[in-house]
Automatic annotation (TrEMBL):
Compartments where found: Membrane
Domain (TonB C-terminal) ranges: 1-84
Protein name: TonB C-terminal domain-containing protein
NCBIfam families given in the database record: tonB_Cterm
Pfam families: TonB_C (PF03544)
Domain of life assignment: Bacteria
Keyword rRNA processing on entry: no
Top-level taxonomy: Bacteria, Pseudomonadati, Pseudomonadota, Alphaproteobacteria, Sphingomonadales
Membrane topology listed for this record: Single-pass membrane protein
Keyword terms: Membrane, Transmembrane, Transmembrane helix
Amino acid sequence: MEWLRKSYQSRPRNLRRGVKGTVRMLITVRPSGKVSKCVIIRSSENAALDSYACRSVVRYGKFEPALDASGTPIEDTVVLALMV
């Protein structure tokens, strides 16, 4: 996932000092594959890390969209766990 590498390289300085955690998010993926919304559903217990994870997924995230019965891309929600 190229977008994940870009996201990691752009993390804030205060998160480059070994701050780590897992953030679980509910994301909305548009038919284009871009993320339009992110909601934290399980915190990493670090507000800065949670905020960074959601901002990064919305800014850089690119996914295969869900398809309806006729094969047309549709908007969908997905649970995503991200270790940062």
